[in-house]
Amino acid sequence: MDAVYGRPVAVISSEGVDFGGALAYGRRAGGALRRMTFHERARALKALGAFLMERKEAYYALSALTGATRRDSWVDIEGGIGTLFSYASAARRELPDERFWPDGRLERLGREGTFVGRHLLVPREGVAVQINAFNFPVWGMLEKFAPAFIGGMPSLVKPAPQTAYLTERVVRDIVASGLIPEGTLQLVTGEPGSLLDHVEEQDVVAFTGSAATAAKLRVHPAIVGRSVPFNAEADSLNASVLGLSVKPEDPEFALFVREVAREMTGKAGQKCTAIRRAMVPTSLVEAVTEGLRRELAKVTLGDPARDDVRMGALVSVEQRERVRETLEKLQQEARVVISGEATLLGGDREKGAFLDPTVLLCETPLTARGPHELEAFGPVATLLPYDSLEDAIHLTKLGRGSLAGSIVSRDRAEATELVLGMASSHGRLLVLNRDNAKENTGHGSPLPQLNHGGPGRAGGGSELGGLSAVRHHMNRVAVQADPTTLTAITREFVPGADVQEDVVHPFRKSFDEIQVGDSLLTHRRTVTEADIVNFAGLTGDHFYAHVDEIGAREGIFGKRVAHGYFLISAAAGQFVSPAPGPVLANYGLENLRFIEPVGIGDTIRTRLTCKRKIRKDLRPGETRPTGVVEWRSEITNQDGVLVATYDILTLVERARDGFDPPAGESGVQA
Predict the structure, then answer these.
(1) Is 518 in contact with 609 (CB distance < 8 Å)?
(2) 155-158: strand order across its sheet
(3) Which of 194, 264, 397, 428 is exposed most, by the fewest CB atoms within 10 A?
């Protein structure tokens, strides 16, 4: 039924579904996804995001039936699609154009350097089973699907029945797009039946929903018996703390009141990150109550399809009754201070799932249990007075683990004490004040770049958090080998591996011609006193270790030494090919280490070796295809001792390929 008028919208069922067959099909179909590189998956994800964005209005129309306003739906629909873009961008920016992900640093396992080790991340060869909640039928699916897709795992999505019709519409469009391999995404609506009975060792299960259901699924015999990774993101009694330092006339006071009201009414309070408990200094309880009363009086209730409505309905009449039951239990230890029945602007009070915002006050928060244990998953919040920061921290912890918490204060010492005190029991903390008020995304808004999850009651899991969510869908394996073999496996140069020296200078080769392991050993150069003096005069760096004979003898080197940056500059003079060619620019320098000093009369030499290659997509307006080549640079002295090492990134011209738009054009490429 729709949440506004109680009219039938869809019929859903999982009757007759072969759950074991669906999972088996996903595992087989996943081979095509695993054969794609990270960058190929990222391009497909970006193209899919653009495809869905063009069809968003159809999703908005259905979303209104779930009780969500246009603003609420924006978070769900465009926020969900935005997650696809975010993961596509992160994968192209941070991951190699390979089917595997070298993880961490190289480990030298033998004294002579002939035995080394490296961790690799490879896709699990199973299906990511994703069980989602009713409140975000689009975002809830896409925020799980995106990292699984980048990680090379197909998804089987099981949405909550109340809003499954919106999820189904988006999935139908994804399948019709043809932008992802067949079998990459499957959808099951209705009851999950025996689905989890068929999960196997290579599968993963991700759940979003109530803490009670998460506890049951976590101990499912198949999950436990087959050691299937299980990630839970559950409801939690999130708190916002108004700092003791805040006065009623401060901007932070108004920010706190608006944030509590916004979190109560956004999605009609049906967010797992919403503020359920508002910790307020005892002296400000009355002022905060009046502020909330004024703010909530501005909230218009009714049909979310109308422009003049700020809060729609709960997702179903059944959900509204559950909230009412919890509200009655909360009133055993708290009293209602703000309530009422607003005039509906459209919708049906009897058949629709409307509930007016309600604020309670618990005057004994340190001894009460209900406000810290019972969650009314709707437009309900409880004010909890406190007298010290220690008490405020303790109150937040009584919720036994939360997804999100916020601190409203401009006092940095106060904010620091609260953050460090609350950190162990929260997955994310927002410090809100006048300095970030314009840009902050709000207490209840998870971001693709940051962790979404929390300890204890919040499920103990973690989603999003940038590429850490991709790791959840991959297996980490330690590979031990000699440097040359490990270079061949990882296609990333390992120090000590065989190199290829060519009569053609590596800077005379295009991106396509350069191979990992291509190397150049330069001519020698003896460092003179004139070099050091001239470099000091050119840069203004007259540090005593370089120019003061007496001071240098008394320093840690016992003699005057060359500037470290002179060594880098001199090395560039050794390996650069000066004539115009395929190398277009210096793109950066990373991992610089100065290891041994170089004094007057020492002789240096540089070895430049191609470490890895990164293809760059054409940006809008660009017509010249390029790639980034990462070079390992090693400067040694006359005794063959390493004195400095660093990685140089160069922008190199490459040939146009099938992922590039025609010359002079730009666009999303699948």
Answers:
(1) yes
(2) 185-187, 155-158, 128-131, 204-209, 230-234
(3) 194
Query: Running DSSP on this structure, what letter comes out for residue 301?
Result: B
Return the active site residues.
233, 272
**What are 265-303's pLDDT values in tens digits?**
999 999 999 999 999 999 999 999 999 999 999 999 999
Q: How many CB atoms lie within 10 A of CB 417?
A: 18
pTM: 0.89
Backbone angles phi, psi at 474, to 5 degrees: -130, 160
Single-letter amino acid, residue 273? T
Greatest alpha-carbon pair distance for the chain in Å reads: 92
Smallest CA-to-CA distance from 23 within 148, 186, 181 is with: 186
The three-class DSSP label of residue 129 is strand
Alpha carbon of 64 to those of 165, 305, 321, 347, 525: distances in Å?
12, 6, 21, 11, 73
| Cβ-contact 618, 666 below 8 angstroms | yes
Phi, psi of 95 (to 5 degrees): -110, 155
CB atoms within 10 A of CB 632: 20
For 517-552, the pLDDT digits (tens) are 999 999 999 999 999 999 999 999 999 999 999 999
Nearest by Cα to 163 from 136, 184, 144, 186 = 136
Beta strands in 174-213 (DSSP E): 185-187, 204-209
Rounded to whole angstroms, what are the CA distances from 204 to 125, 145, 154, 227, 471? 10, 12, 10, 9, 12
87 within 8 A of 150, measured Cβ to Cβ: yes
Q: Give pLDDT tens digits for 113-139.
A: 899 999 999 999 999 999 999 999 999
pLDDT band at 658 (very low <50, low <70, confident <90, very high): low
Smallest CA-to-CA distance from 45 within 186, 180, 140, 182 is with: 180
Percent helix, percent strand, percent coil in the chain, to nearest 5: 35, 25, 40
Is 288 within 8 Å of 280 (Cβ atoms)? yes
Rounded Cα distance, 312 and 356, in Å:
10
Task: For 536-550, give the secondary structure using H, E and C.
Answer: HHHHCCCCHHHHCHH
Which amino acid makes up residue 384?
L
Mean pLDDT over residues 350-360, rounded?
Answer: 93
Whole-angstrom Cα distance, residue 300 to residue 270? 17
Check if the beta carbon of residue 546 is closer than 8 Å to that of residue 530: no
